[in-house]
Amino acid sequence: MSVTDDRRTEPRVGGQGPAPAPRDGQFEKTPPQDIAAEQCVLGGMLLSKDAVADVVEILKPNDFYRPVHTTIFDAILDIYGRGEPADAITVAAALADSGDLGRIGGAPYLHTCMAAVPTAANAGYYARIVSERAVLRRLVEAGTRIVQLGYGTAAGGSRDVDDVVDLAQQAVYDVTERRVSEDFAILADMLQPTLDEIEAVGAQGGMMTGVPTGFSDLDRLLNGLHAGQLIIVAGRPGLGKALALDTPLPTPEGWTTMGEVGVGDRLLGADGKPTTITNAFDVMYGRPCYEVEFSDGSVIVADAEHLWKTTTRASRRQRTEMRPSHQWREDARLAAAAAHRVAMAAPDRLITFAEPVESAGEQFRNVLHVVGSQVGTAGAVQREYVRRGQPWRRTICAYSAHALFGVLSDRVNRKMNAEVTVSHDWAVTTEHIAATLRHPTDGRANHAVENAQPLALPAQDLPVAPYTLGAWLGDGNSADSRITTADPEILRLVEQEGFDTTQSTASPLLYTIRPRRGCGCVGRADCPICHGQPSSLMKALRAVGVLNNKHIPQQYLRASERQRRTLLAGLLDTDGTVTLRGNVQFTTTSSRLAEGVYELVVSLGYRCSVARKLVSGRTPESSVAYNLNFTTTDEVFRLSRKREAHRGRRCSDSNSRTGSRYIVDVRPVPSVPVRCVTVDNSDHLYLAGRSMIPTHNSTASMDFARNAAIRANQAAAIFSLEMSKVEIVMRLLSAEARVPLHVLRSGQLSDDDWTKLARCMGEISEAPLFVDDTPSMNLMEIRAKARRLKQRHDLKMIVVDYLQLMTSPKRTESRQQEVADLSRGLKLLAKEVECPVIAVSQLNRGPEQRTDKRPQLSDLRESGSIEQDADVVILLHRDDYYDKESPRAGEADFIIAKHRNGPTDTVTVAAQLHLSRFVDMAIV
């Protein structure tokens, strides 16, 4: 009923006008907000710099409801970031300089915010209130968009309902995603998970005044590391993890190459989700390079130190043995369980082996001897029998009925290797793969790389429905909108996407596809439904560029997973087959269409191979047939007869072998220019090559923090923007226990290794070492977390790994200016928290252009301001990295290129890289 139905049309008695119509309550609601909490947050930040540190971790500028509060918040952060006091006077002056003071209500409004604060100590709690209201507002906005999508589709919109559902889910996910954040994990809490992972893989003179570095010569030179110092530890970047410049890299929008990408560009991770490049390194020359060939024919050129996340034959065997399976048949397991239930229902008594054999079955006669030894005898019984006509009496061992039947049932129903839990997650270099390419006993391929997950991309507004396009690409006439098929079911599936099919008079198998219109005036420009839409399928095909040129347009290859699967079903229902062994095949003579189908199949997480065969075609281009083959247990057909054939022939465990690609060859090739990038996801993996193969993306600074926390028992924090917590702890255990890192990663620990590891765990579990592996941290977040650690644990050292991966919240004119701001901010952080800050940095290619390859201070990458801000600059150099025959193999130089408070020199240490550490030369 409308609002006007209940209105009075005549004046009331007494001359009063008509009663006002009731208003809908939803239009009177304001978005969720708490102005008082916002004022208390700003007031607390103006009263206390500690409040600023608490708030900056929780709130972002757009979390405030009132725009004037956002302006004040930005001004406070700008002043605080420069290391200056942020109070009502300085903030008012900054706002006056920017011309915003009048817009916020003048300086009195700042004092109003300060007066509203009960106590500045609770600023963090006020900030959480503001943050929660901001999330609620975003939920309301997302809900509004979802309502608009729903009503728009119901009113005859062109969007498919499944696409609307995808968009709605994405809208809610965007709201919740930003609430996820990482924080510190104390070392003691990280040790057990790391040990669990290792165990799982294995089941398969003068007193120094500063913070010690752990290197005696370096400590004598620097007198330790002192509060307020900024120490730069620099070396050449990308000593591995590099790919050839022409390596194709898939992106959410299409393709690029390793030579073209830059910081901020988006790639795709092994989980199928978009990931952002946080650093792109310089091109490197003269590196040893290899061609890595996979079992599906893919080839990628990488340098010797490039990292791959692989499984080996041993790890795959352990994983297979871990599957829940039983040694005994199901009927035997049921019989043992039934006998156990009967025995437990009666009082316990002494029995011999004859009774379980009689009640459970003859099949258990032999295993009962093993069960009996586990249970142990509970007494003896006398058995009488007749032998050769004479009565005999014999004493036989007896067992508790409850215990014997119970152990028998447990043993028969026990899963094979049920106690084994395997988790394989390690990276190996190209050089290591080349050395262990084949299994030594039978020569089989040893290493495999798991397939990427299906690309997780948003739904696209596609001009032609995906199944219809797939069917047309498979059996359609390339010059028009006709399709040839003998399957009426394909026509019905096309019609379900909003098309009409009409049989041609030229052939009973030829059909014309036309868009279905319910308006009765198809094609008229003045029809509101037809306006803006192609009046025929032929025009739509021409619009996407496939008419007379069959291929899969890029927007379809980067559509949502549901849309891509629907497209694949249309292709396979028309031109796909199922082999006798259950493989799925697609055959075409169009090379461009074959490339598109290959990319489509790979984007869904399948391993696909391509075979070429000469056929009799009308033209040279059509005389080569491309046969694409893949195996899966997923439903990839919609046509009933092909779907049933696939179900009946496919192997139920086919994914165990087709879920990965085997590395079949690693061969040296002439050196080519290579380059590497880092990405911001947690596993540091991104996809490379046309087959979308997952591939992977800093030791001295770790040694400083390790020595300070473990040897001197002084609190140290590591902000790792490159490695995860587990990777850091594994390197730490390798260095302390003196167990090679590759042994820990492979899990092949000897008894002596386990002894070292157990001893090391007890020694380091109480070390005050804190790790934060939040990706893409900015300086403000690091400062806030460091201040909190300083207050709680008397922080003595901070390590940032590494400087070039940090981001600045401010816009700068160039990357050099951004790095300059970051280095200056780290220096201010060192002074603010009164502890040394060690920042890992990079060197440019200057050392590689010199004869001796030794780095110099001028080689610091991207900004000369790093040299100015740093109190100490340590440059790392290894002779044997550049010269494999160097007599100084196993040695490294710490070149003290700058020492603000003392002399410069070179300290030689032992590079025990197999243990992921540097040590004094005197330490063996």
UniProtKB/TrEMBL annotation:
Q: Does the keyword Hydrolase apply?
A: yes
**Composition bias, Basic and acidic residues:** 1-11
Q: Which residues form the SF4 helicase domain?
A: 204-241, 698-924
The catalytic activity of this protein is classed by the Enzyme Commission as 5.6.2.3
Catalytic activity, per the record? ATP + H2O = ADP + phosphate + H(+)
Family label: Belongs to the helicase family. DnaB subfamily.
List the protein's name: Replicative DNA helicase
> From which source organism is this entry?
Micromonospora yangpuensis
